[in-house]
Amino acid sequence: MDGPLLDALLQTPEGKTLEFKRDLSSPRNAIKTLVAFANSAGGRLIIGVDDARRLIGVADPLDEEERICNLIADSIVPRLIPNVELISQGNRTALAVEVFPSSNRPHHVKAQGPEQGVYVRLGSSNRQAGPDLIAELQRSARGVVFDEITMPELTLEDLDLAAAQKLFGDRRTLDEKSLATLKLVRREQNRLVPTQGAVLLFGKDREQYFPDAWVQCGRFRGTDKVHIFDQMEIHDPLPQAVEAIEFFLKKHAFKSARFGAMRREDVWSIPLTILREAIVNALVHSDYSQRGTPIRIAFFDDRVDVESPGLLLPGMTVEDMKSGVSRIRNPVIARVFRELGMIEQWGSGVRRIFDEAVAQDLPEPKVTEIATGVRLSVYLSQDRRSVQIKEPSPPAHPLGTADISRLESRLESRLESSLAAKVVLLLKEHESGKAQLARALGHKTVSGELHKQIRRLLEMGMIEMTLPDTPTSRMQRYRLTVEGHATVAAPSKGTRD
């Protein structure tokens, strides 16, 4: 290592790929760091630098070089072979131990064993890896992809292929050949078996197998999580979760008008194009093998944080992400999102987020590795930040307030239920599931009365299921029938009793 490179390192703060140590008086910590480097993105350990990042050197360089080599050989399993150099500047000499991302991961501290001694790098600290993370390190070293692993206990009947085909429309017919091409199924022992990616995307009982594959949304007062104003859980299938998350964000944003030549343009207080990219990125790159951590969307006065479970893949750094380097954690999910037109180009999402922030004159987004995964913070421009949170306004309606009131009153009389009338009016705007209807009605959960009125409306022929063959599907939604539309459109004097 030459002098200019050493000078540059001494000006660099400690982080994912760099750590300084004064000496080897605590060799155990040095060994943990080298293990973490090998299991993550590699890195350099410089011995002979004080807390102020000044080169102080080591007392006996040759002895210390031999000592660190022996410590590595005796203390790390599988064997790790780093690059060890002596660095001299003036009359001071330090040691530089460079470790590269290892194909033999996970390495562990021999004294702690393979279950307790695995460490990964999280920022400038070393984190002890739990069973889920160890399993991911093992899979990545073998080249095994989580969402391509089959679930032999399941069959095609466990996938909601009717709903999947509806999403694909005329883009692709989901026959057996297409399902195999998309790696949604694989043939094992002469039968088609769903992959984990298929179940995550279209499983009828997805959360039975992946209980944390959902999204938690929150709107907070201020710039921290002390005071929560509103929250919502989204359990929609992954492709449909994007729209549901956008609905929540729009609910707590405000819209203004910008007038240009010949036309008016509505401008949201939040950068929807950037946030959509961040949301899709989180859904595609989350580590669904982890337990206890859903995807989280936190809307603050000055920013929106999108947190996805799962640390960066081995070999990746935050700087790599920002520069456009990408490795796809879930290629099955990514392929489906791309076929559905939700991803434009492979691996370009994060780079596009940063470019779009510049184009919109917004503060630079921030990517941070946190204890549970990765957080992407999208900042709002100063002139678009909410001064205070206001109660969300009801969605715009083509009818006037008086017209809506008369229509609701007429429907209530016809249906003998105020709640049923409200449901019909909501379904007049667009098809919805029970959870969406409950949220639109201002309810925290789907009440027994809402279940009852939906059942009545089905029996009356006013509404119908979008997935009649799978009535209990999590993807089930409801829409007005021809008779339902006719009832809404009928003038008051023509209403049947």
Describe the structure.
- This protein folds into 4 domains: 2-142, Methyltransferase, Cobalt-precorrin-4 Transmethylase, Domain 2 (2-Layer Sandwich), CATH 3.30.950; 146-208, no CATH class; 215-384, Heat Shock Protein 90 (2-Layer Sandwich), CATH 3.30.565; 401-489, Winged helix-like DNA-binding domain superfamily/Winged helix DNA-binding domain (Arc Repressor Mutant, subunit A, Orthogonal Bundle), CATH 1.10.10.
- It is 37% helix and 20% strand.
- The protein is built from 19 helices and 20 strands.
- It has helices at 3-10, 27-39, 61-75, 113-116, 131-142, 161-168, 176-181, 196-202, 206-209, 238-251, 272-285, 318-323, 331-339, 349-359, 401-415, 418-429, 434-440, 448-460, 482-489, and strands spanning 18-21, 43-47, 76-77, 83-89, 92-99, 108-109, 119-122, 125-128, 185-188, 191-194, 215-221, 227-234, 255-260, 263-268, 295-299, 303-309, 366-370, 373-379, 463-465, 478-480.
- The strands form 7 sheets. The protein has a 6-stranded mixed β-sheet.
- It starts with a helix and ends in an 8-residue tail after the last helix.
